[in-house]
UniProtKB/TrEMBL annotation:
<keyword id="KW-0812">Transmembrane</keyword>
<protein>
    <submittedName>
        <fullName>Major facilitator superfamily protein</fullName>
    </submittedName>
</protein>
<feature type="transmembrane region" description="Helical">
    <location>
        <begin position="317"/>
        <end position="339"/>
    </location>
</feature>
<feature type="transmembrane region" description="Helical">
    <location>
        <begin position="104"/>
        <end position="125"/>
    </location>
</feature>
<dbReference type="InterPro" id="IPR036259">
    <property type="entry name" value="MFS_trans_sf"/>
</dbReference>
<dbReference type="InterPro" id="IPR051788">
    <property type="entry name" value="MFS_Transporter"/>
</dbReference>
<feature type="transmembrane region" description="Helical">
    <location>
        <begin position="14"/>
        <end position="32"/>
    </location>
</feature>
<feature type="transmembrane region" description="Helical">
    <location>
        <begin position="351"/>
        <end position="369"/>
    </location>
</feature>
<feature type="transmembrane region" description="Helical">
    <location>
        <begin position="263"/>
        <end position="281"/>
    </location>
</feature>
<keyword id="KW-1133">Transmembrane helix</keyword>
<dbReference type="InterPro" id="IPR020846">
    <property type="entry name" value="MFS_dom"/>
</dbReference>
<dbReference type="GO" id="GO:0022857">
    <property type="term" value="F:transmembrane transporter activity"/>
</dbReference>
<feature type="transmembrane region" description="Helical">
    <location>
        <begin position="146"/>
        <end position="165"/>
    </location>
</feature>
<feature type="transmembrane region" description="Helical">
    <location>
        <begin position="381"/>
        <end position="399"/>
    </location>
</feature>
<keyword id="KW-0472">Membrane</keyword>
<feature type="transmembrane region" description="Helical">
    <location>
        <begin position="48"/>
        <end position="69"/>
    </location>
</feature>
<dbReference type="InterPro" id="IPR011701">
    <property type="entry name" value="MFS"/>
</dbReference>
Length: 403
């Protein structure tokens, strides 16, 4: 019996690593070809930002219902729905790029972002459940697998761009292959994964078995939890910083140094490599320094990396800045995820709140960077993110007291 349980846990952990890796490879292929998409559609930075934010509306809708869907459908079915919706969106966007249709790209991104929003919530719930049952910190390594997928996709994107393979062919093939690999992960995942368990242990060890509230009532309760809202604000700053690397760092190098796309993609690739290494070492760091000190460090080192990337007059030093940025950003989201999913009865709802908060603010962040970039250039337009990261350090102490 113990042997069977051990094998089951190994299968589930492998499947969870796969969920994160293929989310990274799937989503980052798009980022690797953004300079080409911008050129093909003839977009200015502000227009690219507007396209991204309109397409991101699907994520906002998805996040509002993702907690409820994850509870109702369970991890496996919710994961299949999310990956299929994302794949459909990417196929539509690829076809629209081929037809030079900006509205078509936005339509595809709507489906794409709705799928990704649900995918992220399911990943968070399942990873939190696996970590709780493992009884030691593994969340950073799950997120390292996402960074590994991101690193592989960005590197492959640079190679494909150098070989001159059309953007639409690359993105469509990536979507179909990723969906197939996700299906394989779902076959490996046990029939009743730990993420489906909304068991009895609460944040303080209290018995939650009597919590028979509907998923929607739990969702509303999560929105009123001060700890969750503070975690959401910290996550907004961290995710905005990480998203800015994907959306703007390669374009910033093209804008400032006239670097070709294949070379400019080194910025997010270096960032991803730095995150992989930092996240693999993450459990060791967190167990020795604790969540509070680790969270302070991740915010401040990220801000330093942004400053170096944005202010350097040399391309190589800017790349060093993205490396510092990646080292700093690596542990923030895993720590927030761990703190948010400690209570299995509320894990899906809390994950949904934290993700929804980011996508809600993302209505402002991309166009703000894009419109500012029209006047200052892309790299200087990222400097306000450093200030935001420094400001949210004020929330770390209250979070440590409540968490």
């Amino acid at each position: 019996m113990a042997v069977n349980t051990g094998r089951r846990n190994v299968r589930e952990r492998l499947a969870t690593f796969g969920f994160f890796i293929f989310m990274g490879t799937g989503t980052s292929a798009w980022f690797s070809r953004l300079p080409s998409v911008k050129e093909i559609l003839g977009l200015q930075p502000s227009s690219l930002a507007l396209m991204t934010i309109l397409g991101g509306c699907g994520a906002l809708v998805g996040m509002v219902v993702s907690g409820v869907l994850t509870n109702r459908l369970g991890v496996r079915r919710a994961m299949l729905l999310s990956a299929s919706t994302w794949c459909l969106g990417m196929l539509v966007a690829s076809f629209a790029i081929w037809r030079l249709s900006l509205p078509g790209v936005v339509l595809g991104l709507l489906f794409n972002s709705a799928g990704i929003s649900l995918w992220g919530t399911v990943n968070t719930v399942e990873a939190g459940a696996v970590e709780r049952n493992a009884e030691h910190s593994v969340m950073a390594r799950f997120h390292a697998s996402y960074s590994l997928g991101m690193f592989l996709a960005l590197g492959l994107g640079s190679l494909i761009s150098h070989l001159g393979i059309p953007v639409e062919v690359h993105l469509a093939a990536n979507a179909l292959v990723t969906l197939g690999l996700m299906a394989c992960c779902l076959l490996v995942c046990p029939a009743n994964p730990q993420g489906d368990d909304t068991g009895p242990v609460g944040d303080s060890g209290a018995d939650c078995a009597g919590d028979d509230r509907s998923p929607m009532r739990k969702q509303m309760a999560a929105w009123g939890d001060s700890l969750v809202l503070m975690l959401a604000l910290i996550n907004v700053a961290l995710e905005a910083s990480e998203g800015a690397v994907n959306d703007w760092s390669s374009i910033g190098l093209v804008d400032s140094f006239s670097a070709p796309e294949s070379m400019a993609n080194l910025a997010p690739t270096v960032f991803a490599a730095a995150m992989i290494i930092s996240r693999m070492l993450g459990p060791w760091v967190i167990e020795r320094l604790g969540n509070t000190v680790s969270l302070y460090l991740t915010l401040l080192v990220s801000a330093l990396g942004i400053l170096v990337y944005s202010l350097s007059p040399f391309l190589v030093v800017s790349l060093v800045g993205t490396c510092i940025w990646g080292i700093g950003a690596a542990l923030g989201v895993p720590i927030v995820t761990t703190l948010a999913t400690r209570d299995p009865s509320m894990a899906a709802q809390r994950a949904s709140v934290i993700s929804t908060a980011y996508y809600g603010v993302s209505w402002i962040i991309p166009p703000a960077i894009g419109f500012l970039a029209d006047h200052t250039g892309v790299r200087p337009a990222l400097l306000p993110l450093a200030l935001v990261l420094v400001l949210v350090t004020l929330l770390v102490r209250p979070v440590s007291r409540k968490g």
